[in-house]
Amino acid sequence: MADHDQHPAHLPECPSARGSGGLLPAELHAWMLLLGATGAVEQRLRAVVKERLGVSHDEFLILCLLATQPDDGLRMTRIAELLGRPKTRLTYQIACLQHSDLITRASVCGDKRGIQVALTEKARRLLKEASDALAGTVTDALGEFMGPAQREALRGLLPDLVAERRAEAPDPAST
């Protein structure tokens, strides 16, 4: 198990990784910090996903993607594109999910090679039941692995998003 006192939020910043005045431009520095935070979240999620849903992290990503789609799901080629996965690996993961009765596969009408994948009611129920624990895991991991320097670097990468959130936030003085 990792030593939680040695995570990025508490380590001194590496001089060569600074966004300004270092070797990396601010955008690349922010992207590297985002990748680090994402890796930390994935590490934490793996155990919770396995415990709550009984699937691998990669299979979980497929379920999450399908959960954002209409009931008829997505074609396998589109899932592969969106997740950046090779189609051969995706075929194996889809087979595992189908074996667990979490997804359905159907031929696309008029296209012999096309396969449409959709969530089952069992998958929808499991995702709903696990959503609070999964969301809490993400929030906790980001809070632990992203210190003030990381958050500021990401704000620089997404200035429009930060401005939108500030505009949407209720005025504390008016409450």
Topology:
Blueprint: H1 26-53, H2 57-67, E1 74-75, H3 76-83, H4 87-99, E2 103-108, E3 111-119, H5 121-145, H6 148-157, H7 159-168
Antiparallel strand pairs: 1-3, 2-3
Helix pairs in contact: 1-5, 1-6
Write a brief structural summary.
Residues 27-163 form the HTH marR-type domain. The protein is mainly alpha-helical and 175 residues long. Helix content is 60%, strand content 10%.
Could you characterize what this model shows?
The chain is mostly helical and 175 residues long. It has one domain (25-159): Orthogonal Bundle (Arc Repressor Mutant, subunit A). It is 60% helix and 10% strand. The chain has 7 helices and 3 strands. It has helices spanning 26-53, 57-67, 76-83, 87-99, 121-145, 148-157, 159-168; strands at 74-75, 103-108, 111-119. The protein has a 3-stranded antiparallel β-sheet. Strand 2 (103-108) and strand 3 form a beta hairpin. Helix 1 (26-53) crosses helix 5 (121-145) and helix 1 (26-53) crosses helix 6 (148-157). 17% of the residues are buried. Mean pLDDT is 82; it is low at 1-7 and 11-19. This is MarR family transcriptional regulator. Residues 27-163 form the HTH marR-type domain. InterPro entries: HTH_MarR-typ, MarR/SlyA-like, WH-like_DNA-bd_sf, WH_DNA-bd_sf.
Relative helix content? 55-70%
Q: Cα distance, first to last residue?
A: 45 Å
**What name is given to the CATH topology?**
Arc Repressor Mutant, subunit A
CATH architecture: Orthogonal Bundle
